[in-house]
Design a protein that fits this description.
It is built from no helices and nine strands. By secondary structure, it is an all-beta fold. It has a single domain, classed as Immunoglobulin-like (Sandwich). It has a five-stranded mixed sheet, with no helix packed on it. Strand 4 and strand 5 form a beta hairpin. The radius of gyration is 13 Å and the shape is elongated. This is Ig-like domain-containing protein.
Length: about 90
């Protein structure tokens, strides 16, 4: 069966210095997903954490800044889910 997103990420608005968390869920366990911001692949670092647990995949941004504004997407195979992060 083809993998699909059973829960998609949602547009969100957060205040500066807060934490932003985007969560999605896929139909199969232990699937590799790629997170992107404005089409460019994101790597985990001190600022952005990428967490995978079974079917749930999370992108967590600590201490949000204006530079984090943009469109985020989570991609696996030929399916994806995307959402916009805005900062106030």
């Amino acid at each position: 069966a083809k993998v699909e997103f059973t829960k998609t990420i949602k547009d969100m608005k957060v205040k500066e210095k807060q934490q932003a968390m985007m969560i999605c869920e896929v139909s199969k366990e232990n699937i590799t997903v790629i997170w992107k911001k404005n089409g460019k692949e994101i790597k985990s670092d001190d600022h952005i954490k990428l967490v995978s647990d079974m079917k749930v995949h999370q992108l967590i941004i600590e201490n949000v800044t204006l530079e984090d504004i943009g469109e985020y997407s989570c991609v696996t195979g030929d399916v994806s889910t995307s959402a916009t992060l805005s900062v106030e």
